[in-house]
Amino acid sequence: MKTILVDGKSVGEAYDGQEVQLILDRTSFYAEKGGQIGDRGTIVFPVAGRDVTMTVVDTQFVGEAIAHRGTIRGGTMPLGATVRTRVDKLWREEIRRHHTSAHLLQRALKDVLGDEVAQAGSWVGIDRMRFDFRSPSGALTAEQKREVVARVNAMIRDDHHLTTTIMTPEDAAASGAISMAGEKYGDRVRVVAAGPAVEFCGGTHAHTTGELGLFLILSESSIGSGIRRIEAVVSKAAEAYVLGQQELVSSLAETLGAKPADLGERVERLQNDVRDMQKALAEIKSRLAANDAASYLDRVEEIGGKKLVASVVSEADAAAVKSLATALRQKFPSGVIALAGVDGESVSLFITASDDLVRAGVNAGALMRAAAEAVGGKGGGAPAHAQGGGKNPSAAPAAIDAVRAALAS
């Protein structure tokens, strides 16, 4: 053991319960590099018939050295001790498989989209892999996604044995190996071949592509100008994802009383039913609001010589307050109408000014801006009519007061 670090400082020994970083003369642990996360496992120091252990939770480079981070258990571990390293086999296996899937994915993307595809980064974990790339044609179509997945899974089924070769960068490039754009390489490079997928790479990989089992794309999205990101899974993570989706589909089918194959049609019918009910409810609310028009006219105000009907209307959406304003206008030909409809967590504002008041300088759009600000929302419109809204129902009375204040100024 070369170094023990506690809080970044070198010490002579590590005690039970202490979180430390150990730097060894040599190690079987792979440190995080090139997007591949570091290994986990244990480091064991045999002493007096028992073991002092450290559970390694992360492995990182500290300069050129590899630091193993974890907590000491079972005693004291002194500087210079001879230790045994045990990498978590399952952790390493799933990382290796996801790393190999990144190589297969790049090969498939180039086959489907063209050689203009260029890797822009990656991240490899135990339960998923992210692959960033410059796409020559933007987002993948559904057909292109299917073809990419099919090509990767074909390479998996072909069960290619992975091979590694050390050669000069020039020889590697001449062999057709894919390199990372902008990456600097030394005099000798490691080339990993997984069937038709051949790349410069220093990371860990599966022994055969067949180990990956199944490849699935979870998502494909934009992360910047011309750069796309694919998140994918293989091996146990892919199996868990498929089982989860099957359970979800079965649960939905049972809830909706439909066969799994008929879920799309069943959901579409439900969506149509919901839209029809929402439309019917809006019409009912509009009619009820319009029927109440007479009661609002009993509360006509006069501000600065201008008549005003202003009120907060409960359980009224945008369509309802507009219908109420239209009904009021038929019985209130000259004046300003300002309504704030409260419907759940939303406020719908509607303001209208009669033609004679518009000619006198009243502007419904300006009144709306004052009202909308009061409910933390937005609004505007023409001098005669304006609409707006917000998400603060408790401030609806303040919106009406803002219209009164603006009309009086």
Please describe what this structure looks like.
The chain is 36% helix and 32% strand. With 409 residues, it is an alpha+beta fold. It has three domains: 3-87, Elongation Factor Tu (Ef-tu), domain 3; 92-242, Threonyl-tRNA Synthetase, Chain A, domain 2; 288-408, Diaminopimelate Epimerase, Chain A, domain 1 (Roll), CATH 3.10.310.40. Strands 2-1-4-7-6-5-9 form a seven-stranded antiparallel sheet. Strands 17-18-19-20-22-21 form a six-stranded mixed sheet, with helices on both faces.
What characteristics describe this protein?
Elongation Factor Tu (Ef-tu), domain 3, Diaminopimelate Epimerase, Chain A, domain 1, seven-stranded antiparallel sheet, Threonyl-tRNA Synthetase, Chain A, domain 2, 3 domains, 409 residues, 10 helices, six-stranded mixed sheet, 32% strand
Oligomerization:
single chain
General form:
elongated
CATH architecture of the largest domain: 2-Layer Sandwich
Summarize model confidence as the mean pLDDT.
92
- Discrete helix count: 10
Q: Kindly state the number of beta strands.
A: 22
CATH homologous superfamily descriptor of the largest domain: Threonyl-trna Synthetase, Chain A, domain 2
What is the beta-strand fraction? 25-35%
Biggest sheet strand order reads 2-1-4-7-6-5-9
Low-pLDDT ranges: none
CATH topology of the largest domain: Threonyl-tRNA Synthetase, Chain A, domain 2
Total number of distinct structural domains = 3
* Helix content estimate: 25-40%
Largest sheet: 7 strands, antiparallel
CATH class of the largest domain: Alpha Beta
Helix/strand/pairing category: alpha+beta
Q: End-to-end span in angstroms?
A: 81 Å
